[in-house]
Structure formats: C-alpha cells, structure tokens
Amino acid sequence: MSGAARYRFTRAQRLLKTDEFSSVFSLRNAVSNVHFQVLARPNALPMARLGLVVGKRTDNRAVVRNYIKRTIRETFRLNAQSLAGLDLVVRSRQAFGRKERVAVREELQDLFARIRRRCPV
Q1: pLDDT grade, residue 120 (50/70/90)?
Q2: 16 to each of 3, 43, 61, 103, how far by Cα in Å?
Q3: In 10 A of CB 85, how many CB atoms?
C-alpha cells in the first residue's frame, strides 16, 4: 500500500449494518470520558472498522453534529493502523467546538489506546 493510500477512510472501514453495530454493543467492552464513549469488539479482519453514533441529544444543530463526526473520522483515520482487528463504535456524549478540537482529539486518541489495551486481538 502506498503512503497516501494507507491513510484513506474507505467504505470497507465503516460499520454500516445494524447487525455490525449490535454485535459491538452487545459485548459492552467500553471506555469513556466527558466527550465520548468508545465500544469495541475484535473482528477477524486485518483492519479496524468504525461506526458513529452522534444523536440530536449531543446538539440540535446538524452543523455541529457533522463537525463532531468529521473530527472522529479524522482521528480514527490517523490511528487506524494501531487499531487493526477491532470493530469500534464511537458515541458522542457532549458537543465541542473548534476551540476545543486539539484537546478533544487527544482525548479520543487516549480512548483508542485504552480500548486497544482492553481488547487484545
């Protein structure tokens, strides 16, 4: 895989079906902080897959919810190599803005590291 292609976020890296989400939720292997809850389960694939749950309870405005989703996807994309072999669902718990972006991304990276230690593949 070339350098740029390694960091793409492809359709194969997404949890799309209800059954895929349900299997992650049923295992209940989770870590959380103020902004996010990350649930995980091992998969039999050589890559990590991501599912997002950003509801209206987080923020009523679609612009804010979309910004949260973009931030989560970008953080996942940059850390996908270290998360290989896991299906992850990230739930947003609290909205954040551009001023908090750097701190929130660091928090999410920390959650990814914690869930990786909890879920050996």
Answers
A1: confident
A2: 26, 15, 23, 28
A3: 17
User: In Å, how far from its chain's centre is CA 90?
Assistant: 4
Q: Concatenated DSSP letters for 42-90?
A: E-SSSS-EEEEE--TTT-S-HHHHHHHHHHHHHHHHHHGGGGTTEEEEE
- Confidence (pTM): 0.91
pLDDT at 95: 96
Q: What share of the chain has pLDDT > 70, as a percent?
A: 93
Q: What is the band of 36 on the pLDDT scale with cuts at 50, 70, 90?
A: very high
